[in-house]
Design goal:
By secondary structure, the protein is an all-alpha fold. It contains four helices and no strands. The radius of gyration is 23 Å and the shape is elongated.
Amino acid sequence: MSVEDLKNFDRRKKYRVVLSLDEKDKEIFLKKLEMEGVTAQKFLYTKIFKDEIKNTRDYLELSYQIRKIGLTLNQYLKLINNGKSVQDEKILKALEEVTEVLENFKKEV
């Protein structure tokens, strides 16, 4: 037992949860454990309880960015509907920003 295990000995959890996986999901799970370099318990505990805050912040940031870009697009569409001209480059730039934000978000999550 490592020193870390001894420190956590008194903190052992009293409830056990069983996870059933098919062969394909088991392989994916084991690869993720290997990549993270942690035990199954630590991996699941982190994903369930600690990553939640990070993901919430990421989702809030993504939501804010999409709303901001959506407002810009709505302004352009309102101008177009009123018969005013809007440069295509501005609309394309706004759409590229949406795509870029989504791609960055996918990489982070």
